[in-house]
Amino acid sequence: MTRSDLSRNLNNFGLTKTCQDLALRALNRAVLFKVLKAIEIRRPDPNFSDPGNYRALFLDRSMLYRFSADPENELSEEFVEDALAKGDECFAVLDGDALAAYGWYSNTPTAIDPSELTLHFDQQFIYQYKGFTHARYRGRRLYAIGITGALQEYLARGYTGFLSYVEWNNFASLRSSYRMGFVDFGAIVVTRVFGRLRAHSSPGCTRYGFYLEHAPQRPRARTAVNITQ
After folding, report:
1. Same domain as 104, residue 84
2. 160-213 pLDDT per residue, tens
């Protein structure tokens, strides 16, 4: 963590949370230890339903490959190919022809980081992952607008809502998620000690079939929700 990151965390989240984050980062230098907060949303927030002068839509294959050519979009061609091959969709917010924000959505078991793990979940829900806002558009809550637009689309298809997770010490992403209407329903603890990987789901995850399976032979890793606004 840089000095500016430390200062920002202190200003935004206080001393206690900043120390907890530093302690967890220090622990992860020795062993892998992650606490994944499982979150869900079922109702769109009307405060984020109007994209204003932006366009909110699902991106087709040609648009995705065009945007993947710009490294600033954090959307590699390899990732796009992998995601489309498993039937995932990308809902984005565009400023004219520029990509401002996006999120990915899946209804099938999806790989996470670390790469040996696959996330399973109740298929009445859609798994939301890899949230991104371009640096030029941060602070405008466009990611929340994208989540809300996508949620409306999937509810119309008959799904119950979205499931996702955020690492416990990613305070900015958690705050943004709660602001747009996500709520906690459980947690998963992931550890790797002496090369042995384990994942333990809390009882709250059971109702959603939300668990991690150790599956070495599977598609490339996915990215969790990581909101920057």
Report:
1. yes
2. 999 999 998 888 889 999 999 999 999 999 998 888 899 999 999 999 999 999
Question: Cβ(159)–Cβ(40) under 8 Å?
Answer: no
**Residue 120 in tokens:** 């399973």
Residue 16 and residue 49 share a domain: no
Which domain covers residue 141, as residue numbers? 31-214
Q: Which residues of 88-100 are buried (b: 16+ CB within 10 A; e: fewer)?
A: bbbbbbbbeeebb
Q: Are residues 7 and 46 in the same domain?
A: no
Q: Is residue 227 part of a domain?
A: no
pTM: 0.85
CA 171, CA 17: separation in Å to the nearest integer?
8
Cβ atoms within 10 Å, residue 26: 9
193 with 92, same domain? yes
Could you give the CA distance from residue 183 to residue 5 in angstroms, rounded to a whole number? 26
Residue 228's pLDDT band (boundaries 50, 70, 90)?
Answer: very low
